[in-house]
Amino acid sequence: MLKPHVTVACVVQSQGKFLTVEETINGKATWNQPAGHLEADETLIEAAVRELWEETGIDAAPQSLLQMYQWVAPDATPFLRFTFAIDLPDMPPTQPHDSDIDRCLWLSAGEIITSDRLRSPLVRESILRYQRPERYPLEILSAFNWRPPAR
User: Fold this and answer.
1) What confidence tens digit (pLDDT) does each residue in 11-52 have?
2) Residues 6+ positions from 59 with CB-CB distance below 8 Å
3) Burial grade of 35 (CB within 10 A; 0-12, 13-18, 19 or more)
């Protein structure tokens, strides 16, 4: 039975630059969008807001859905990734609250797309997807009869 890891990611753009988090994986500095796993007591949008704050210190909400990706990592772990867009007028200061994040960087699309430091190919793909004009309204994601499970 397939049980994918459900994750959220935020493509955050400001003044032509994209917010990237740097984390060390297996001794190597890698780049990712602010991203993480959906927790049992939250909606997808709540998870995106939480992950953005934890990894960057930025308090902002998704403005649209970019894409949903079904992907299997090289170690055979299946993922279902919901990728959101956030456009900010200014680049706010960053302060990661998650000890796994080494630092935050504002990078150009080209720097990300051509990098060999990406945590997964979805980082590049999400930037390429952002560059297309299509966006999906957040209302497409419904928390139907939402009652978070008791802890």
Assistant:
1) 999 999 999 999 999 899 999 999 999 998 899 999 999 999
2) 49, 52, 53
3) buried
Query: How far is residue 82's CA from residue 64's CA, in Å, rounded to a whole number?
Result: 11
Q: In the 8-state DSSP scheme, what is residue 90?
A: S
CA distances from 122 to 2, 35, 70, 71, 77 (A): 20, 11, 10, 9, 14
**Would you state the torsion angle of the CA atoms of residues 77, 116, 104, 99, taken in this order, to the nearest 10 degrees?**
40
For the chain, the domain total comes to 1
In a domain, 145, yes or no: no
Q: Which residues pair with 9 in a beta bridge?
A: 35, 83
pLDDT the model gives residue 144: 82
Its domain, for residue 126, covers 5-140
CATH code of residue 25:
3.90.79.10
C-alpha dihedral sign at 97, 100, 103, 105: negative
Phi and psi at residue 126, to the nearest 5°: -70, -35
Q: What share of the chain is helix, strand, coil (3-state, %, to 5)?
A: 20, 35, 45
Each residue of 81-98: pLDDT tens digit? 999 999 999 999 999 999
